[in-house]
Amino acid sequence: MTFEKAIRLLRENGLKRTPSRESILRLFASDGRYLAASDVRDALAFEHPGMSLDTIYRNLSSFAGLEILEETELGGERKFRMHCDRDGHHHHFICMECGRIQELDLCPMDRVAELLPGFTIEDHKFEVYGRCPDCSS
């Protein structure tokens, strides 16, 4: 998702365009990795020295609720990234070290559905975790 689209979604959902929200969204728009609230605080510390983790968490949760950000849990910590705008169903590999994302053009749900005859699958989330080539070496 682009920064401009994220700002439009904020406006359409009645959230004000504030300098701190803009900075958070610009950070996510420029960085394709999953980031924790502490990563956001560290990245924006010079620009917004008084921004608290509470403010960051509230904004991240709001953005996730509006589907501006995607959320996952890595190592027991909530992490976020800009919502993927790519057309077509796909999943992601997520580096547990640096948060880098690699899109996967496959879905294991066809096989899972075969293993669950008579069940109705309504939704799913499939993520693969490991280390990218840069973090493996």
Automatic annotation (TrEMBL):
Keywords: Cytoplasm, DNA-binding, Repressor, Transcription, Transcription regulation, Zinc. It is found in: Cytoplasm. It comes from the Bacteria. Transmembrane segments: none annotated. Its main location: cytoplasm. Pfam families: FUR. InterPro entries: FUR, Fur_C, WH-like_DNA-bd_sf, WH_DNA-bd_sf. Belongs to the Fur family. This is Fur family zinc uptake transcriptional regulator. It comes from Bhargavaea ullalensis.
